[in-house]
Amino acid sequence: MGNLLRVLNDKGGSVPKVNLFVDFEKAQPTDAEKAVYEKVAAVLERAPRIIDELGGYTGAGEQIREAISKPSNEDTQEKAWNAVRPLVLQLKTYYEFCTELETALTSILSVLCSADMTAMSHLEMHQALTKQLAEILDFSLKFDDLKMNNPSIQNDFSYYRRTMSRKRLESNDQPRTTGAASNSVEGEVDMRDDVANRMSLFYAHPTPLLNALSATTKRFVEMHSELPLENTTDCLSMVACVCRVMTENPNYYTRFENEETIYFCLRVMVGVIILYDHVHPVGAFAKNAPIDIHKSVKVLKDHSQKTDGLLNALRFNTKHFNDEQTPKATKTLLSS
């Protein structure tokens, strides 16, 4: 493959020694990838706009505080409600986009984890889909970081739900006129209760999208019982190793046209380690895991000016970091 250099695949230990260049900047789909690639691309093309919007999300905190402090003032109540409703519709759009990403991830895993070739061969033959997997993980880390650092998101949605419940109760208490709508507040309902419930659970999680993608990956494994678990975990661990090697080795990272691609690789490495840790029964921190956590942490610390959040993600968003079986040296390394 012109865009990929496969130098060595020597599994001398539990961690595969892999030198592999995947062109995350320019990889194009082969004919075999095109059907899945185009469906996923139609979803991912909206990702930059959503990150920009979420980054500029200011919320309705001022109006909500005013309404809470003056509960009998109808004007302040109406101002808060009118401020919150369009914001909640934005949050609904982001939630729906994230559910589309879950579907996209499943489509990609169906190809990259299929039994017809090894994980290494899949990355070699399906670079464009590997790039899209990386883009989903990159988006998820950016999305979750913006959400986690913006309490207005949960505050706005909580206020919306409380106000909607109150309006329904008030409407039910009012006498009904013959021929009138059974519930006058229904004209203000922006979503069904089941959607609101799912959104509430989604946004309540500190890192909602990574949590959702982890659950999606586990469901993929459960639904494809004909595939050995190793098909999925080998794919994830191989992507993690490739991302690490490409940021360690100047023969590879000097081939990037954009320096930001290095940080893209680091975000993807962390995202895929988190997925692996949630899917594998023992996790990514076990001594015999096929991911070199120590080298992964080292490369993050080598770029510490932009990776503090990624180190925290490994500590707080993984499933097995605090297990007794996690080596003490690993815990010390990540905590220092």
Describe the structure.
It is built from 15 helices and 2 strands. By secondary structure, the chain is mainly α. Strand 1 (6-10) and strand 2 form a beta hairpin. Helix 1 packs parallel to helix 6 (127-148), helix 3 (61-69) crosses helix 4 (74-112) and helix 12 (260-279) runs parallel beside helix 14. The longest helix has 39 residues, at 74-112. It is elongated and about 70 Å long. It starts with 5 loop residues before the first strand and ends with a helix. The model is unreliable at 1-13 and 177-185 (pLDDT under 50).
Low-pLDDT residue spans? 1-13, 177-185
Radius of gyration: 23 Å
Proportion of beta-strand residues: under 5%
Biggest β-sheet description? 2 strands, antiparallel
Overall, the morphology is elongated
Order of helices and strands: EEHHHHHHHHHHHHHHH
N- and C-termini, Cα separation: 41 Å
**Mean pLDDT metric:** 88
- Which oligomeric state applies? single chain
Number of beta strands: 2
Q: Count the DSSP helices.
A: 15
| Percent of residues in helices | 55-70%
Structural class of the secondary structure composition?
A: mainly alpha
Main sheet: strand order: 1-2
Characteristics of this structure?
336 residues; mainly alpha; 2 domains; two-stranded antiparallel ribbon; disordered N terminus
Put the structure in a nutshell:
This protein is an all-alpha fold and 336 residues long. It contains 15 helices and 2 strands. The protein is elongated.
Give the topology.
Layout: E1 6-10, E2 17-20, H1 34-44, H2 47-55, H3 61-69, H4 74-112, H5 119-125, H6 127-148, H7 152-173, H8 193-204, H9 208-223, H10 229-248, H11 250-253, H12 260-279, H13 293-302, H14 308-316, H15 328-335
Antiparallel strand pairs: 1-2
Helix pairs in contact: 1-4, 1-6, 2-6, 3-4, 4-6, 4-7, 4-9, 5-10, 6-12, 7-8, 9-12, 10-12, 12-14
